[in-house]
């Protein structure tokens, strides 16, 4: 049975084109919390079959990985799922916008499999809460590039995509799912851009980010970690709160929401 906790807590999901098996081991050593073997956008149609075979071989060797399959209704979706039958598997489902597509994918996989719906369309954003509610869904991921193209907006415009990002955060919280995973930073040569994007998504309530280069992983982990000041505050709050009831510290009222915030920071600091 797959344990959803590692994927729920993952800060980084590193994409690897599935037609490049020579990169699989390097990705596994990158420090990313999860490696995503990609059968979709990064693989040309004529290479899908070889990529699928590469994924099957890697998984059968006992390696852990999330597999991004092709979208429901695409010419490759059925073959992708057929290649994953057997052991439980974590799958990222692109263009997710209907709960029945997510549940139907899970029905095709081995029992105890997990799905991360990748929300990339306006319909998917609107349906985010119903996607979260499907048993077997770990958390949502945000494909902002495709959504921006559909909306006709600049994918780097935070204002244009603010509502969509916030909708996913709210949907996850309402369904008691782990906070969502934000989209990729396409500039692999600019560490500052990766860090800035990670800070923005963390501020909105995301707790993970999709990555497209091993060099982005450590940057995201650093941003996702609480600062020394935040952590000191959190430990002070929890120490004062241990006395029970509503109290105060440094002029701040300490009640359950404040304690939950403090505990969340401590939990984030506990990540390797």
Can you walk through the features of this model?
By secondary structure, the chain is α/β, with parallel strands linked by helices. It has 2 domains: 5-224, Alpha-Beta Barrel (TIM Barrel), CATH 3.20.20.60; 228-269, no CATH class. It contains 13 helices and 10 strands. It has helices at 5-9, 24-28, 48-60, 77-82, 99-108, 122-126, 128-132, 144-151, 158-174, 191-204, 214-224, 228-241, 256-269, and strands at residues 12-17, 34-38, 66-68, 90-93, 114-119, 141-142, 181-182, 208-211, 247-249, 252-254. Strands 6-5-4-3-2-1-8-7 form an 8-stranded parallel sheet. It has a two-stranded antiparallel sheet with strand order 9-10. Helix 10 (191-204) crosses helix 11 (214-224) and helix 12 crosses helix 13.
């Amino acid at each position: 049975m797959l344990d959803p906790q590692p994927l729920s807590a993952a800060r980084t999901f590193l994409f690897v084109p599935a037609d490049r098996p020579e990169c699989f081991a390097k990705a596994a050593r990158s420090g990313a919390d999860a490696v995503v073997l990609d059968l979709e956008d990064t693989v040309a149609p004529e290479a899908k079959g070889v990529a699928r075979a590469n994924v099957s071989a890697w998984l059968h060797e006992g390696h852990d990985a999330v597999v991004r399959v092709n979208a429901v209704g695409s010419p490759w979706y059925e073959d992708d799922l057929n290649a994953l039958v057997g052991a439980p598997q974590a799958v990222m489902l692109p263009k997710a916008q209907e709960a029945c597509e997510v549940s139907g994918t899970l029905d095709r996989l081995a029992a105890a499999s997990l799905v991360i719906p990748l929300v990339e369309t306006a319909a998917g954003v609107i349906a985010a809460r119903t996607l979260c509610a499907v048993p077997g869904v770990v958390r949502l991921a945000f494909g902002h590039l495709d959504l921006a193209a559909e909306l006709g907006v600049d994918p780097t415009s935070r204002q244009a995509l603010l509502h969509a990002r916030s909708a996913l955060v709210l949907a996850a919280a309402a369904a008691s799912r782990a906070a969502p995973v934000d989209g990729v930073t396409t500039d692999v040569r600019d560490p500052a851009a990766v860090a800035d994007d990670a800070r923005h998504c963390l501020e909105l309530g995301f707790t993970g980010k999709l990555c497209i280069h091993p060099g982005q992983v450590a940057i995201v982990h650093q941003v996702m970690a609480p600062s020394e000041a935040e952590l000191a505050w959190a430990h002070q709050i929890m120490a004062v709160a241990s006395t029970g009831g509503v109290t105060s510290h440094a002029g701040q009222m300490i009640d359950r929401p404040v304690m939950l915030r403090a505990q969340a920071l401590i939990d984030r600091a506990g990540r390797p």
